Amino acid sequence: MVELARIVITGVGLTSPNGNSLVDYRQNLLAGVSGVQDYEIRHVGKTLAGICDFDPLRYQKRKEMRRGTRAGSIAIWCANQAIENAGIDIERLDSQRIGVYPGVTEHGNVETENQVHEVSQYDFDLSFWSHHHNPRTVANNPAGEVTLNLGLHGPAYTLGGACAAGNLGLWHGAQMLRLGEVDLALAGGISESIHTFGIFASFAAQGALAKNDSPQLASRPFDRDRNGIVVSEGGCLFALERLEDARARGAHIIAEVAGGFVNSDGVDHVLPQSDGQNACMRGALQSAGMQAEDIHLVSTHATSTPSGDAVECAAVRGVFGDSRQTYINNTKSYIGHCMGAAAALELAGNIPSFEDGIVHPTINVDNLDPECEMRNLVLGQPKQLSTVDTILNSSFGMLGINSAVILKRFSA
Question: What is the pTM of this model?
Answer without folding.
Answer: 0.97
